[in-house]
Amino acid sequence: xxxxxxxxxxxxxxxxxxxxxxxxxxxxxxxxAAAHLLERGLDVVVYEAGPTVGTSVRAxxxxxxxxxxxxxxxxxxxxxxxxxxxxxxxxxxLPTGHDLVDTYLAPLxxxxxxxxxxxxxxxxxxxxxxxxDRTRSTGRADTPFLLRLHTADGAHDVTxxxxxxxxxxxxxxxxxxxxxxxxxxxxxxxxxxxxxxVLGADRDRFAxxxxxxxxxxxxxxxxxxxxxxxxxxxxxxxxLWAIRNPGTAxxxxxxxxxLAARGQLGSTVHELVESGQVQQIAQYEIDDVQPDGDQVxxxxxxxxxxxxxxxxxxVNATGFRPDLNMLRxxxxxxxxxxxxxxxxxxxxxxxxxxxxxxPPHGVAELAHPEPNFFIAGMKSxxxxxxxxxxxxxxxxxxxxxxxxxxxxxxxxxxxxxPETGVCSTDVGGSSCCTAPAATATPAADDAACCTPPESATxxxxxxxx
Length: 465
Hints:
Layout: E1 21-24, H1 28-39, E2 44-47, H2 55-59, H3 75-82, H4 97-109, E3 118-119, E4 123-129, E5 145-151, E6 154-160, E7 162-165, E8 191-192, H5 203-206, E9 210-214, H6 218-233, E10 238-242, H7 260-275, E11 279-281, E12 284-292, E13 295-302, E14 305-311, E15 313-316, H8 345-348, H9 363-366, E16 373-375, H10 389-403, H11 407-410
Parallel strand pairs: 1-2, 1-7, 2-3, 7-16, 8-15, 9-10, 9-15, 10-11
Antiparallel strand pairs: 4-5, 5-6, 12-13, 13-14
Helix pairs in contact: 1-3, 1-10, 6-7
């Protein structure tokens, strides 16, 4: 008997037909990625671990950005919004994190194009290839991605033709110890995340307490200034500041800085130290942190000599690192030092470059050995503290063009970034932020996604950790 095959056999490439591009994270860059992909006619699905859009942004929502609205809205996202009758906020005004979510991200997520494709309360626990771990190579590029999702109903697997990870780094701060390891003991609520709402919702956590802020960036400075303000109205509040190096190169003390607000921020912190309102502990390398009754004791070495200090609460403002656990079965090409894509790392390594020297980049610098897998946004910068929100938007524009087959557009970097040249690179880290309008109080810092100011004579790139 002869059997006739009436349906052509499926090739591996056919397995990708009809599958969406999976985007991990519904923050500013994740939603921008979805907007650009939709404009290119590609199906997308966005997985957001939190209950709402911009969950991480809401965590520091009380903080005001240094950058005006005109620099925090993606172009493709704006086109989607304007089709609904949305009107952009006043271009020169400065949003808080809450403003960014309520006025921009939430309406964007509610557009007819994006609302059906965002799945909230959905955490991506792992990414792999269907039927393939990272060791198998044959036909890998034509095999669907497999994402394991965790929701309130349990775990289940879905497939995708490509994956763009924009999950960020805000939920994975660097540990307190100089060795990069987490303290051995469970410290509970004795340690709080960067950018607490010192003068608002978190006031009772700090009022009348001895507080140690660890870190030398703008998030640390922001918190120190607010703690010093709190101490004026809350007797018994004591503010300590631990840094690993002899000085704070990222926080210039010169108020005549070309960036007035940044100079003001650095000058204010140094004035607080000089006046005794903030006790700076320089050259302090923390070895361990242990509970000490209701307090916590930090042990280590100060200028090479044993040193310990006991406080009520610690603010961890040491920066962030990418959580790569869910990508164990993906073939990543990461730099050994900053954990950014290898082609991108030399452009952003804070040991080599100032913030202003970081060039715009796209799919060519973001590629991994895993075909059609990309990390974009803050997470793409690994441990480097120089990410710009506008750069993230350009990343996903380039990625969308590549996935749509427009390879020329993908490699045409359209974003022109201003330079500053003021960030220092001699301390193994670098950070800079833009200046707000002259009437605004400099409140935002390197945990916020800041971008260049309007004035051509007051240009910089604002960095995040």
